[in-house]
Amino acid sequence: MLIYQVKDNNFKEFVVKTKKEKKFVSSNIFSLELKNFFQKKNKYLLDDFKKKGNGLDTAKKRSDFLNQIIAKCFNNFFSKFNKKNFNFSIVATGGFGREELAPYSDVDILFLHNSKDKKFLKNFVKFILHNLWNLGFKVGYATRTVKECIFYSKKKLDVCTSILESRLIVGNKLLYRDLIKNYKKIILKNYSKQFFSSIFIDREKRLIEEGDTRYLLEPNVKSGKGSLRDLQTLEWIGKFLYKINKLGDLISYKILDKNSVNSFIKAKKFFWNVRTHLHTFSGRANEQLNFEYQSFVAKKMGYKKNKSLSHVEMFMKDYFFTAKKVSDLIRIYCSFIEEKEKINYRERKNDNFKEKKINKFIVKNKRIDFINKSLIKNPNNIFQILETAQLKKLEIHPNASNLILSNMNIFKKDANKKKNFLFSFLKILTSKNNKEKILKLMSDLGILGILIPDFKRITGQIQFGGLHTYTVDEHTLKAIGYLNEMELKKNNENKFYNEIFSEIISKRILYISMFFHDLGKGTGKDHSFVSSVIAEKFCSFLEIEKIEKDTIVWLIKNHLLMNKISQKRDIDDNNTIFEFAKNVESLEQLKLLFIFTIADMKATGKVIWNDWNKFPLEQLFLKTRNLFLGSPIDVNKNIIEKIKFNLLKNKKLKKVINIKNLVKVLPNEIYLNYDQKKIINFLEILNKYVRKTYIKISQNKKKFATEIIVYTKDRPGLLFKLSGAISVSGFNVIEAKASTLKNGMALDILYVRDLNNSMLDSLYHFRGLEEVLYKVLLNKFELSKKINIEKKKYALKNLFNINTKIFVDNITSKKHTILEVNTFDRIGLIYDLTKRLYKQDLVISSAKIITIGKGASQIFYIQDLKGKKIISNKRINKLKVNILSLLNK
Q1: Looking at residue 657, what is its pLDDT?
Q2: Per residue, what are the HEC states of 324-385?
Q3: CB 496 within 8 A of CB 489
Q4: Which residue from 191, 274, 181 is spatially nearest to 226, judged by alpha carbons?
Q5: For the chain, which end, N or C, has fewer CB atoms within 10 Å of the first or last residue's CB respectively?
Q6: Distance CA 287, CA 267 (A)
Q7: What pLDDT digit, counting tens, does each position of 375-400 carry?
Q8: What are the residue ranges of helices labelled H in 742-782?
């Protein structure tokens, strides 16, 4: 038998014992030779890629190089035995099987055997694996017989595709031929329809995980929509259904044309260049093209800035355009096959394959097509087929899509000047049915870019700052989809939104405004203003009524207003409501702005659309609506009184002697922002810790953050000390509410996450942070010294070039000056700012710290030491200069 022993990391020995012989074999020399061979070859491949920049060529060479390593291991192992007719093969599968191996990809291999000697087989596998592991390869492997391979191919898609693109590296050729023979005879012959269905079910699951759009700002190069995995899917289907060797062979089946094949080859080369640069720069198997890598990859691929776009923006535009091409290719390709082979993977009724005529069009399998190709000569028919598809909830047949794409020159001629085209577009935009899907198709076909040239400019336009999830065009169309949900009362998140939408007089104002609201991005100017100008020209050209046109222009110019006020101002201050109402002008415009803001925020992503942001937005709407209706502004006054009344009756609080006084101590925002259980907790703290410090740390799953409650004696500089303690503990403050109570105490509630943007995950973290907080409050901690160490340790680059902007608002609040600082987020930011305000003899009455993406907004309600606003221009300018000098260090 074969016994495998490991002496240490550098030396390995194999002891062979049989009945006939006893032999000692040292493999140390072989291991050293193999390592030397690997290092030289690996360095050559890296240097070769740096010189040529050809990722696909490097992937092929890396596969060849690994073939040699595995063959050397195989031959070395069997050289110890007099076995000529061994029943073993090593087969490359996955990317390795395709001869497409990225620098840090997993190596997938199949140990194919027909051996009954399990111990010998086990040690053979061990020998190969340990040599590969010692060289740093991550190996995914399976050990199977031919029979087992066929069995699992029927059951598992990944096994089926791995054999489909497998190849023999070394070993028994007859054994591998037997596998392929059985695979063709049993699997390829009998499982084509199941394979096709499984491929697309798997794809749909994958896209749910990765995000079902090719326009995610930080795309996954390997498995995102329109990327390498989709290209592989095309090849798998071609190989399985039509037994082709390369995708170009599908031309003879009249499924793809030369242009499509060229697009496929070009896309594959592009993505492999991106992927190889990403692996090389990351030093690991990294497939996510995050913001921090985009600039590096763009430079390496030769992108340079032009007058309007940076090198990163140009690169990402190309990336998204390529992903779009691939998505179009897979949609058209697979629709053809589905129809050609009568494959119903979507579980449609079989009678859907029957043809039905609708005017100039024919419908089959829920897809609409032109009856006659000559119809394309009249561009009006393009809109007719789109409108019919929208009305009847049909998909556009690939034939029709290809016909439109190949005849775009006819459509381009004066398209932007022909009112009937724009009126057709407006009809689609404002129709109740399926508008997001049809608009996305119009975007894919290039129609929107021709009709509205500014839309073409923002297609694939990235949005820096870490706030947005999607490109500008994708964000816009998603927002239109969210408006549509509310119109159809399909928004189950909050039925109240649906009700307000139904009250709006002219709903097309919303849709036109939403389509145009971001078209000014990428111009280098105020995008709200530029977008409003573009929209005004559109409305004037179509002779839209003046009252609607003026409202559209107003809505676009002010589309960020409601979000800003609700998130960055104290909406419990009546003056905030008065000032906001002045800008809004009317109840109808308030409803428009409210519904617009909801859809806009939702389409931005989960980072900004959450319960914490929804509540103040809704409160701002209700209060302002009451003002316009002549009702009391403080819609919450009765609510607060009712909450207090219920608290006085609560069994838990009956034992508290001075409960009537305690409920008066808490500020109104506490009653509005927290549920009864939380408020009772606050009152119990006030009762138990009369003049003492109390700290509680717990998880807030709703906010996906760790919550810190600090109840202590109010004092100048309290917030900067607390935030400093959190920073030196290695955590980030994402939000904070600082309140001064009527009993001279302070109740500060802070929400923190670790540097991976996650909640604190252990009791160890809780206790450590609590200890630092107590020490800081007792002045027994060298805060400045410790925080400087943390800053150096976790220094971050301002990859998004986020400029610092400082605003001072002396209008919104009657009692406070509102200081707003927007800047790049980093360790110790809130500590630095709050400390600087303290040194400027300024008192922070309340604060909002909002961290979104890579940017941070710090809003402070401040007064001087006499409790008055900062109205001196000289002092305001001095404060701005002071903060800028601090942040630009």
Answers
A1: 65
A2: HHHHHHHHHHHHHHHHHCCCCCCCCCHHHHCCEEECCEEEECCEEEECCHHHHHCCHHHHHH
A3: no
A4: 274
A5: C
A6: 16
A7: 888 888 999 999 999 999 998 988 88
A8: 763-777
